[in-house]
Each structure stands twice: as structure tokens, then as C-alpha cells.
Automatic annotation (TrEMBL):
It is found in: Membrane. Coiled coil: none annotated. GO terms for cellular component: membrane. This is DUF4962 domain-containing protein. The keyword Amino-acid biosynthesis does not apply.
């Protein structure tokens, strides 16, 4: 029995703990001491969040939109009451519980009782039952318990019945992690009174046992940064309750969780506030989870995660809270921030880290010119649907069991596509969230007007033949240079006869991006090279186009081929980012610079992309020289000379030596900068 303080209603004496609350047992007294000292800021966050709830109206009937926020609110209020014993928190908790328990189903528009709403509420209300259930009047406590049993049973039954179908076996997908984590939390909360709930936690444990073995070792996420911040917290939420309930610690076992912060950090924009938005991303800002940064810092001793958490909490938090398209968003995680913050982990800023990194499973190559906010960043990726691990493992599982396990609907047909940020602006962009995903909306290549096979739908990789795979062939990250070669020809319909479509991309230490795209087809075809920008690129003569972007701009020099048709079009991209709220729509407009060849069997597109400040108009000189299978590029501007040599087949290559010029070499790549006079190598 958990006893509330009696007597003076203004008293805030701690409650007497007799029960064994989830995640708190054994260190409640320490936590109460810490909220007055080293966790005072996190406690303030919890208190502020609970105060906010008092002004929020609650619908007596299930709204059309998602109700996930009810679960997080219950957990926040219950923790505040548990730690302080203040009656007003319990009073407010009862108001929220009354509404949530009163809804006959959790979720309305999509899979009621069987998807995200149910997972979120089972977790939040399960914690609330464990932390404050004994303080509720007996009829309310029993009503909450019975609702958890009812909803947990419904979700468990669906998971068993749908094995091999939707989220029950979608091991790389946020729905899987959320629903099973919620189911396990509720199971541990009610198992003492409802022994059948052990079947729920056993099923969740078996699921995550598989998940941890199947997640990529490089920590990358095919769903993109936004779904990373939405889904990955549930992996650690589950491991937390597992460790508490069964004494089983799987944190050390997970290479994915140990590495995944680096994926998030390197997908941060140079200002660290915004994101690189490969994949379905609601916007360019929905990327932070202070709580998750705390947890990864605590479990793996990552000082940079601790540092970034403070940057967000002190500088980015409220803009994220108000502008993020993800709900319930960063404010709802107050209880996790308090529980997961480890004050003993020392902060470390990223300045000493390499400025570039390769994530091989997702074929993701990221480089930036520095860790300063005005840096230039390039991010390019090429991998099969879900990444290499998911692509291979799902094929094996599906073949053995007759299942469908790969649900990579948030990944785009964007193999080989790149994003460029610089001078505080998005310069070469990704489409963001899309309900009908098309290669034409990315920085790629079309063949006779066609993009990747199976495109123009939500889930491009669904039931896709395993021959359709893209890969990174080579990567060089050295001396501030970033070089990568990706092969994406197999992503097109075989009827198009594509024999090679290979992108060579280079970024110099100064931020210049050079691309060379070799296109080869069996029959004469029209190849269309694409560049997406926020604003229409304007022609500036001599094959140059300038795309303005606020504080920055992108100067594009089209070098080869010269005999092409060039135009600029406008595209509208639409999306419904959540099936639980059908009326919610995201509509964006972007502009596409296109250059299209006549029917040819082979073409090589050579392009120089210069990120600049918005008012930087100083002329430069870009040249290209194709000699057999070798492409030489050069850029001279503002006293800076950059030379790049690429071999289209990856053979060894080098540049002529120049006094004072350091050369970097990799497979099929050589580059140097120096004070030498501009010349074509």
C-alpha cells in the first residue's frame, strides 16, 4: 500500500513507499535528494510540464486526432506526485486518467487498440499505475487496472494474430518498438494482479531479443532523423523496464544503441538545431530528444550526447517544442529527462571529432567543413531499402516464414541523392515527407523520364525484387576532403536497360561540391539530371545558375555535357504524416533545375556546386576536362585553387605535384588545393 500524507493539505511531505514502483524501486530517496541539487533543472522541467496540463481541456469523447499525449501526461503527473506527495498532482492525474480510461478504444482513425495510440497509453498509464495507483480511490485504481488489462490484452492478441504481417514483425520500424515497449510496461505494472500479463512481457522480450540482433551496427536509421527521435527512445524505454523487472541488462549488448548517437550528430545541420532531412521528415526542426541524449550519455559515457542535451535544453528547446511537427513532442519527455539524466557524465563538445563519417549500413556519407554554425555540410546516401542489414535479413526471414518484415515506407527513392547545407541555409534539398515518393523530387537522375522502379507510391521498397539494390563503392575521408562513389543503376526498371548509373561526389575542405554522374544504357535514352532547391534557380549565363536561400546561396556551374536542354520547374509535394490523424496534411513546394540529354547510350554530367553567402558574387572559374575514363575538374576563386581528378572505373590516379599543394588520394580519386595558378590539369 502506498500512503498519502495526511493532515495539512499544504504539506508536501514525501509519500511513504511500501510498493515497488517501476524504474524507481531502490533509489527513490536518492532521486528525491537529487531533484534539490544535481537534477534541479530536470525537476523544474517536470514541474513546468505538469503545470501546463492544468490549462489544457480534455475531450470527453475520443478526438479524431492521435491521443498519444495522454500517456506521457499521466507519467509526468504520476512521477511529480510520487516524488513530492503534493495532492494537486494527484488531482490533475485523476482528471487525465478519467478521460483516457473512459475512451472505449485507444486510437480512432487507424487500427483502434492495435497501434501507436495503444502503445503510448499502455506505457504512460502503466507507469502511472505503478507510481501512483495505490494513491487513487479504490474504484479508480481498479478501473485503471482493468483498462490496462483490457487494452494490453487487445494489443497482445493483435500482435500474435498479425505475426509476419504489420508491426509485430517489422523489426526495423518505430511502430514495432513503440507497441511492444508499451505492452511490456503495462505487463510489468499489472502482472502481480493479472498473471496472464506475463505472456505480454514474454512476447515483447522475444521481439526485442530479435530486434537487437537485427539493427545495424553503425547506428544508422533508414527512417530518417525525425523517426529516429520518435522511435529510438522506445528501444531504451523497453531496455529500462526489462532491466528493472527481470534484472536483464541488454544495453551493453546493443551495438546499435552504442553507435546511434553518432548517426544523429552527423545528421545535424551545422547550427546543430536543424537536421539533414533524408527520409520522411515532418520538417527541418523535429530532431531532438533531450531525454534520449541523456540516456545514451548515461549508458555509454558519451560526453558529446551530454553536451548536446544541454545545448538543446538551454537554447533550442522551445523552438523545437512549438515548431516541431512531431507530437506529443519534446515537452512530453520531462519524466524521462529526470530519470535518465546522469550528472556524473562529463560534457564534451564535438570540436575534436572528425568532420566526416561513413555509415556503411545505410550507405550514408556525411562531411562538413567544420563544427561551426556557418559551415558547409554535404550528406549523400546509397543503400537498398532499409539499409543493407534489413534488406538481407528481411529477405531471409520472409523466405523462411512466409512473412513480410521490411516496412521501409519512410525511406525515399533517393539512393545517390545528396543534401547540401551552408551559410545557415538549405541549398540542395530533400523533399521531406511525401505520401507518393518519386526520384524526380530528389537530387538524382531520371532515365526517359522515369525514376526508380516501384516509385510514385508510399512504400517504394514493398515487395521489391532483391536485385534492386544500391551501394557505396568507395569512400575517402581525408584532409578535409570527402569523396564517395555510389552505384544506383539497379534501382531502375530493367526495361529501361540501365547498365550503369554511377555518382562520384566530392566536397573540398572549403565546401565546394563536385559531382560527376556517369549514365550508360543499352539503348539510346534521355537522361535527366536533377537539382532541388527551395527557390527557383536563376540563369546567370555560361551554364551558371544561382539559387538564393536567405543567408546563403548556391552557385551551380553546369560543365558537361553542353548539348542538353535545361529548364526549371516547380513541384508540389504532399503528405499525411500520420494515419491516426487523416486530416493532417503537409504541402511543400520546391524547384527543380533539370538538364536533359537527347537519346544517347552514354552521358557524363559534370557539375560544380558552390555554397556561398547570399551577397558573395565574386566570379570564379570552373573547368572540366574528360580524357578517356578520367575526369579532371578545377575551380579557382578568391585566391583558392582546387583540383580534382576522378577515374570513372576507380583505378589509381594522381595529380601533378605543385609547390605548396597537399594532395589527397583514394580509390579512383585525387585532389589538392594550393596557391598555384589556375589551370586545367
Amino acid at each position: 500500500m502506498l500512503h498519502r500524507p495526511r493532515g495539512d493539505p499544504m504539506s508536501a511531505a514525501p509519500i511513504t513507499v511500501v510498493s515497488r514502483p517501476l524504474l524507481l524501486a531502490g533509489h527513490e530517496d536518492r532521486l528525491r535528494a537529487e531533484i534539490l541539487t544535481v537534477k534541479a533543472a530536470q525537476f523544474r522541467r517536470l514541474v513546468d510540464e505538469c503545470e501546463r496540463y492544468r490549462a489544457l481541456p480534455l475531450a470527453p469523447a475520443h478526438p479524431d486526432a492521435s491521443i498519444t499525449y495522454l500517456g506521457a501526461a499521466a507519467a509526468n503527473l504520476a512521477l511529480a506526485y510520487r516524488l513530492t506527495g503534493q495532492e494537486h498532482y494527484l488531482t490533475e492525474l485523476r482528471r487525465w486518467l478519467d478521460v483516457a480510461v473512459g475512451y472505449p478504444h485507444w486510437g480512432k482513425a487507424h487500427l483502434p487498440d492495435h497501434d501507436l495510440d495503444a502503445g503510448w497509453l499502455l506505457h504512460g498509464l502503466g507507469l502511472a499505475y505503478s507510481w501512483a495507483g495505490d494513491a487513487l480511490p479504490e474504484p479508480e485504481r481498479a478501473r485503471l487496472r482493468d483498462k490496462l488489462i483490457l487494452q494490453g490484452g487487445r494489443l497482445h492478441e493483435f500482435a500474435v494474430a498479425s505475426e509476419g504481417g504489420w508491426w509485430a514483425s517489422s523489426y526495423w520500424q518505430n511502430h514495432n518498438w513503440i507497441c511492444f515497449a508499451g505492452l511490456a510496461t503495462a505487463a510489468y505494472a499489472v502482472a502481480a494482479e493479472h498473471p496472464d500479463a506475463r505472456a505480454w512481457s514474454d512476447l515483447a522480450k522475444a521481439n526485442f531479443d530479435t530486434v537487437l540482433d537485427l539493427l545495424p551496427d553503425d547506428g544508422s536509421n533508414n527512417e530518417g532523423v525525425v523517426y529516429w527521435r520518435y522511435g529510438v527512445p522506445w528501444l531504451v524505454s523497453y531496455l529500462d523496464v526489462l532491466r528493472w523487472a527481470e534484472g536483464t541488462d541488454w544495453f551493453a549488448r546493443s551495438a546499435y544503441l552504442r553507435e546511434t548517437f553518432w548517426y544523429r550528430l552527423y545528421q545535424a545541420a551545422p547550427d546543430l538545431e536543424r537536421i539533414v532531412n533524408h527520409g520522411d521528415c515532418h520538417d527541418r526542426r523535429s530532431g531532438h530528444s533531450v531525454a534520449l541524449y541523456y540516456k545514451l550519455a548515461a549508458e555509454y559515457g558519451i560526453g558529446q550526447a551530454q553536451w548536446l542535451a544541454r545545448q538543446v535544453a538551454d537554447g533550442f528547446f522551445w523552438r523545437e517544442a512549438y515548431e516541431s511537427g512531431v507530437r506529443p513532442g519534446v515537452r512530453a519527455e520531462a519524466y524521462q529527462e529526470l530519470l535518465w539524466f546522469d550528472p556524473t557524465v562529463a560534457e564534451a563538445d564535438p570540436q575534436s571529432l572528425p568532420t566526416s563519417r561513413f555509415f556503411p549500413d545505410l550507405g550514408l556519407v556525411v562531411g562538413r567543413t567544420s563544427w561551426q554554425p556557418d559551415a558547409t555540410l554535404v550528406s549523400v546516401k546509397a543503400a537498398p531499402g532499409g539499409g543493407h542489414t534489413a534488406w538481407t535479413a528481411s529477405a531471409k526471414l520472409d523466405r523462411e516464414h512466409g512473412w513480410t518484415t521490411l516496412n521501409a515506407g519512410h525511406q525515399h527513392p533517393d539512393a545517390g541523392s545528396f543534401v547540401i547545407l551552408g551559410h545557415g541555409s538549405y541549398l540542395a534539398i530533400d523533399e521531406g515527407y511525401s505520401s507518393r515518393k518519386r526520384t524526380a523530387h530528389h537530387n538524382g537522375v531520371l532515365v526517359d523520364g522515369h525514376g526508380f522502379v516501384n516509385e510514385d507510391r508510399y512504400h517504394v521498397f514493398e515487395n521489391l525484387d532483391r536485385q534492386h539494390t544500391a551501394e557505396v563503392l568507395t569512400t575517402t575521408l581525408d584532409g578535409g576532403w570527402v569523396h564517395t562513389v555510389s552505384e544506383i543503376g539497379a534501382m531502375y526498371d530493367p526495361a529501361l536497360g540501365v547498365q550503369r548509373l554511377r555518382r562520384h561526389l566530392v566536397m573540398s575542405p572549403a565546401g565546394t561540391v563536385f559531382t560527376v554522374d556517369e549514365c550508360v544504357a543499352r539503348d539510346p535514352s534521355a537522361f535527366t539530371w536533377l537539382l532541388q532547391t527551395d527557390n527557383p534557380p536563376a540563369a546567370h549565363g555560361d551554364g551558371r545558375y544561382l539559387a538564393q536561400a536567405g543567408s546563403g546561396c548556391l552557385l551551380v556551374t553546369l560543365l558537361e555535357p553542353v548539348d542538353v536542354h535545361t529548364d526549371v520547374i516547380t513541384s508540389t509535394v504532399q503528405a499525411n504524416p500520420t494515419s491516426s490523424t487523416p486530416a493532417l496534411a503537409i504541402v511543400t513546394e520546391q524547384h527543380t533545375l533539370r538538364r536533359t540529354t537527347g537519346p544517347v547510350t552514354a552521358a557524363v554530367f559534370v557539375t560544380v556546386l558552390e555554397p556561398r553567402a547570399w551577397n558573395d558574387t565574386e566570379a570564379g572559374v570552373s573547368t572540366a576536362n574528360i580524357r578517356g575514363r578520367t575526369v579532371h575538374l578545377a575551380l579557382g576563386r578568391a585566391g583558392r585553387q582546387e583540383h580534382v581528378a576522378l577515374h570513372l572505373d576507380g583505378q589509381s590516379i594522381e595529380l601533378a605535384a605543385a609547390a605548396g599543394a597537399a594532395q589527397v588520394r583514394g580509390a579512383g580519386f585525387a585532389a589538392r588545393t594550393g596557391p598555384d595558378e589556375m589551370s586545367t590539369p
